[in-house]
Amino acid sequence: MPELRRKGTTIYYEVYGEGYPVVLFAPGGMRSSIDFWKKSEWNPITTLSSHFKVIAMDQRNAGKSIAPINASDSWRVYTEDHIALLDYLGIDSCHLLGGCIGGPYCLGIIKADPKRVGAVVLQQSIGADNNKDAFYGLFDSWAEEIKHQHPEVTEEEWNQFRSNMFDGDFVYNVDRHFVSQIKTSMLVLMGNDVYHPEIISREIAELAPNAKLIEEWKNPEEDNTIETVIQFFKENTPVTKT
User: Fold this and answer.
1) Which one, of 133, 105, 120, 111, lies nearest residue 194 by Cα?
2) pLDDT tier at 239, thresholds 50, 70, 90
3) Among 108, 95, 130, 128, residue whose Cα is nearest residue 203
4) CA–CA gap between residue 235 and residue 171 (Å, rounded)
5) Strands, DSSP E only, in the chain?
6) Residue 97 pLDDT more than 50?
């Protein structure tokens, strides 16, 4: 079973296809895992793997991945996992596609190692828009499912972890000024519900200098979504020197 083991954490991942790497961060909130792509509007594993090497992963304490829980946990530990997986797989440059919570995950990698990212697709990113209670509820339901695996973690520590994730504004792990400085090419597939606010998608697209907003994408056959994403990634793929 393909796994990355580091600092008491086991990250499960899968690799499909060949070519320039595209790393996927699945929807599902704190439960973000590979299986969620099967429930998505379209599955980038199946649609992109005939054009690129696709790497999908289960986030820590979701799917088949496991990790310790600490009060200090935040978006930072997820970015550390992502960078560690790229290092482990020997990926120096890649595209990113993140759905839902995968939006901040993508932005976190850009902040940590911008030269490593070719292009990004943000699929209805999560973000703050008078919806903290909704995200607290999602966190708490996920935590209840796995608390028996972490009997050493106190309620205060769970609550601090939750605050570290969802007490911020905008997209939680980066601020507006940072997004306004991003030079990476981005496609922003617009959200339209409480967890994926339209205003967040629009603001990301307005702030980022090289971002394009796609308003209609959830009916891929009618909206030409898959072809748009494939072409976008191909246009931003570095030419290999021979």
Assistant:
1) 133
2) confident
3) 128
4) 27
5) 3-6, 9-16, 21-25, 53-57, 94-99, 117-123, 185-189, 211-214
6) yes
> DSSP label at 34?
G
Rounded distance, CA 216 to CA 56, Å? Answer: 25
Return d(Cα 79, Cα 51) in angstroms, integer.
26
Q: What is the pLDDT of residue 241?
A: 54
Is residue 157 helix, strand or coil?
A: helix
The pLDDT value recorded for residue 232 is 98
CA dist 142 → 92, 116, 123, 167 (Å)? 33, 31, 22, 17
Q: Residue 104 contacts by C-beta under 8 Å, 6 or more apart in sequence?
A: 75, 98, 125, 126, 171, 172, 173, 174
Report CA dihedral (148, 150, 156, 159) to the nearest 10 degrees.
Answer: -80
Query: Distance between CA 204 and CA 87 in Å, rounded?
Result: 28
Q: Sketch out the chain's domains with CATH numbers.
A: 3-235 (3.40.50.1820)
Given this model, what pLDDT does residue 1 score?
75
DSSP class of 191? P
15 vs 94: CA distance, rounded Å: 13
Tell me the whole-structure pTM to 2 decimals.
0.96
Do 120 and 187 touch, CB atoms closer than 8 A?
A: yes
Which residue is it, tokens 């494939």? Answer: 230
